[in-house]
Amino acid sequence: MKFSWKNLLLWSLPIIVITFFIWQGIFAPITNDNNNVANSRMTYGRFLEYVDMGWVKKVDLYENGHTAIIEAIGPELGNRIQKIRVELPASAPELITKLRSHKIDLNAHPTKNNIALWNLIGNLFFPLILILSLALLFRRSNNTTGGPGQAMSFGKSKALFQIEAKTGIVFDDVAGIDEAKEEFEEIVTFLKKPEYFTAVGAKIPKGVLLIGPPGTGKTLLAKAIAGEANAPFFSISGSEFVEMFVGVGASRVRDLFKKAKENAPCIVFIDEIDAVGRQRGTGIGGGNDEREQTLNQLLTEMDGFEGNTGIIVIAATNRADILDSALLRPGRFDRQVNVDIPDFKGRLAILNVHAKNKKINPKVSLSIIARRTPGFSGADLANLLNEAAILTARQHKNEITLHEIDKAIDRIIAGMEGTALIDSKSKRLIAYHEIGHAVVGTLLKDHESVQKVTLIPRGQARGLTWFTPSEDQSLISRSQIKARIMGSLGGRVTEEIVFGDSEITTGAGNDLQQVTSMARQMVTRFGMSTIGPLSLENEDSNPFLGRGMANLNEYSDEIAIKIDKQIQEIVEECHNKTVDIIKNNRVIIDKLVDILIEQETIDGQDFRNIIEQYTRIPQKN
Fold first, then answer.
1. pTM here?
2. Cβ(300)–Cβ(332) under 8 Å?
3. Are residues 308 and 362 in the same domain?
């Protein structure tokens, strides 16, 4: 709440009033008259003697007759009138008679009623404070969306509304997803110059759904639309619709579209729409009634009885497989735009965008970086250059070089760099293991090329062999899958041949998991076995049960036995071929292990040059 003199007065007034009443109730003098304060005291017996001697001139009674302030004059008092305090006994009926008989001026003062005062405070003042506090809370609930007033605005939309969204991002800042950019450039044109489309009878699309893996630029596209379009822009996350109270989400949807209709034509962006748009009526124990009500209201607002003329809804998700089919039909989300992992040209364009504010050495070629990073999303590439810049600053350099970029790539893929291993049997065993992977991968025509072999630990790995993945990973042949199986077995097979069966280690645990998974997919998904061209399993997972929990076998036990046998035969065949490669190139392996232990890292090209001194490397596909 902002500071204002009105608020200061509102909060200060109760404090001032409380302080006043407390002062009046507790600290007011008993005598209620500062002139009546006595400086000395006297016993009751001495007081009676003064009365008998005629020295007492006036008596004032306080506290229901328990205390008296007397005015007396006499030789003992220096013949001056002095005020003296006397504590009277609880019962002294003869005192009043005696004072009257000596014709002494007598006054009685009533006791101040403190109990009545505090009753007044409790019955009047505290309810007044409560009323003022409630008034302040209601005032804040009308002016803000946070704080205590938030409890009074559950049904209000939390959408961020901007007439002209100043995100600082335009279409020129978005690279690597040209097809998606064209779709949204058309929508922005529709908002700015709708007559181009209406002249031929075209209608503005009601919804555009962005689908793609995380980090590919879906939210960035929405920010670019907000920066390009001179139209009102509403931004909200799908999770902000759903609350624990039934009906709140639907109310927020109504409120959002009510505001949007008042500002049409406009754009409504819903990020992570899968939080509210999941399939209805599924899952164990029924669906979430609150979420389903919210989804029903969203469906009605997008294309219901009234419609939403002039409102373009843009949504983003990376879980399109779990969205309700009614949400995906034309009339609600007319267009579904796939934002995929960028290819080489896309990665190069993204690197050019993020390299604008980085001090990169002119000798560094961004195209080389783009070729070394297949499978990287836009967010990964931005993080790559940022990590390289951090490493450059840490080493007190002025420019980013290829060395820092290489380290950043390794760190992103495999984790932080660990401490180098000391010379020992364990280090030599790891060296043989990694050289086994690299040699088998290099000597197989259908395997990817070796990029680097290192003994420097990263993450959980004690050593690593890097292969340069191919650009096109969508179609993989049977020979390529078998080559990958043999490459994964290269480390374990080298341990068996060099150190013997009794010395093999657990280092190949992850390799064997990959081997088993690839062999099983060859049999059950790709039809690459003697069982036939049958797809016996699929990778679709039930989003309400979790990945892999609902994969029920749709084949007989006899087929299951055949599947296990075929997997075993494929792995055994690849294992035997790998053994032959390792045995036939033992001299090369020993030479490479000595070099690796000495240098700890061998570059891919240097690795191939050493092998070519002993044998011919097949031409890669």
1. 0.66
2. no
3. no
